[in-house]
Write a structure and sequence with these properties.
The complex is a heterodimer. Helices cover 32% and strands 21% of the residues of chain A. Chain A is built from eight helices and ten strands. Chain B contains two helices and six strands; from the N terminus they run αβαβββββ. Classes of the chains: A alpha/beta, B alpha+beta. At the A-B interface, strand 3, helix 6 and helix 7 of A face helix 1, strand 5 and strand 6 of B. Bound molecules: guanosine-5'-diphosphate, magnesium ion and zinc ion (4 copies).
Chain lengths: 271, 115
């Protein structure tokens, strides 16, 4: 999993902790296969009760990532949406608004190109591009690699807020924890208000729902109330905000939400 | 799409299980796929078929899929509905739309039969 620790693969299951690149973390690997030996080995077939989660390796890595973010006092956010909902644009505007107040870093996930990373780099914050080679989601191991790459970028030390822009896809990223503190799902007005009903898993595992491109509300049939109530059906504790990167409407609430997360994280670290 | 990478991880785990148990063929694999785990059963089956065709160890391996129940709790009256089927639209008792869920969000390798 990590380059420098030499642990072979997620399915080679051993608990270990190790130091590298100046931090220590443990990998929880499960060895839960039952060894049932109270039967004859002459029988042709053998049945083993396993009960391990196929998500276990990713979840353990995600926990290691989260521990790392906590240790350095950074808030990590996982942005999930269909392609074109406005994730990169949101980040560009957010960086311009906040970069004098706090240190921001960005991990970009894309199937092929590094165009989004170039857009972010132009705003003057450290960024790395992870190309997934066509895969439909980021996972915790890629994220782990991502922040180690970011550590080599100037301006990353002491980062307060780490954005992870997931691969454009409203389905698959929901299944893979990255170690984020909050998962933010975006739907833009042209996509319509029925997304929460169609993708309950994505909305069910998110903490925050952002309705983007609200400047386009006059041109599309997008009843805000319906979108809100559909989203709350999928997840009664979801925080919901609306904004337009183009006009700046709703941006203050979004920025305050981010400031709050960062302030709370600093408080936890000091405590 | 991501079902394929999950099946790949599963096969790695099955291979090491087989090695530890001196088995050369996996006869039967029982999975528990939660209705809320974000995995499409058909896609998982499809991925399993494709990858199992590529290795002798998985020749004619039977895939059994169990679907566990999910508990939906009404946020108004606390009435519970337990089902492995489709998510209920609303509370059967009071009509409330906001329901919280418990269980059904994992993807488990339950049992392996090998020879
Ligand atoms: N009208 C409008 N267009 C927007 C807004 N935010 C982004 N866009 C446009 O939507 C398109 C996709 O945006 P992008 O940020 O690349 O989406 P991503 O794929 O989610 O990263 C671009 O053409 C943006 O200019 C907005 O608030 N209003
Ligand atoms: Mg983008
Ligand atoms: Zn590491
Ligand atoms: Zn390791
Ligand atoms: Zn996928
Ligand atoms: Zn009720």
């Amino acid at each position: 999993m990590c380059d420098s620790c030499g642990c072979p693969s997620p399915s080679d299951n051993h608990d270990h902790s190790h130091d590298h690149d100046g931090h220590s973390h443990s990998h929880a690997h499960n060895h839960e296969h039952g060894h049932d030996h109270n039967h004859s080995h002459d029988t042709a077939t053998k049945t083993v009760d396993v009960r391990t989660s196929l998500f276990a390796a990713n979840n353990a890595m995600a926990q290691a990532n989260r521990d790392h973010f906590d240790q350095i006092g950074a808030v990590a956010l996982n942005l999930i949406s269909s392609p074109g909902s406005g994730k990169t644009t949101l980040l560009e505007h957010t960086i311009m608004a906040l970069k004098d107040e706090m240190k921001i870093g960005v991990i970009e996930g894309d199937p092929e190109t590094d165009r989004d990373a170039q857009r972010i780099r132009a705003k003057g914050v450290p960024v790395v591009q992870l190309t997934t080679g066509g895969a439909c989601h980021l996972d915790a191991a890629m994220t782990h690699k991502g922040f180690h790459l970011l550590e080599k970028e100037p301006g990353y030390a002491g980062v307060d807020l780490l954005f992870i822009e997931n691969v454009g896809n409203l389905v698959c990223p929901a299944t893979f924890a990255l170690g984020e503190h909050e998962r933010i799902v975006l739907v833009s007005v042209p996509e319509g208000p029925d997304k929460p009903a169609k993708y309950p898993k994505t909305f069910g595992t998110a903490q925050t729902f952002l309705i983007t491109k609200t400047d386009l509300l006059p041109y599309f049939d997008f009843p805000l109330e319906e979108a809100r109530s559909e989203a709350l059906k999928a997840n009664p504790s979801l925080k919901i905000m609306e904004l337009s990167a183009t006009t700046g409407a709703g941006f203050d609430a979004w920025l305050d939400y981010l400031r709050d997360l960062v302030r709370t994280k600093k408080g936890e670290k000091a405590a | 799409m991501h079902e394929m990478s999950l099946v790949q991880g599963l096969f790695e785990q099955l291979k090491s299980l087989a090695a530890e148990n001196n088995a050369t063929r996996i006869v039967k694999v029982t999975m528990e796929i939660g209705p809320l785990c974000g995995v499409v059963v058909d896609s998982f089956q499809f991925g399993f078929e494709i990858l199992s065709a590529q290795e002798p160890m998985f020749k004619e391996t039977e895939l059994v899929i169990e679907v566990p129940e999910v508990t939906y709790t009404c946020t108004s009256c606390s009435q519970e509905q337990v089902t492995a089927g489709e998510r209920p639209d609303q509370c059967g008792n009071c009509g409330e739309f906001l329901l919280t869920t418990r269980g059904g969000d994992d993807l488990l390798l339950k049992q392996v039969e090998m020879e």
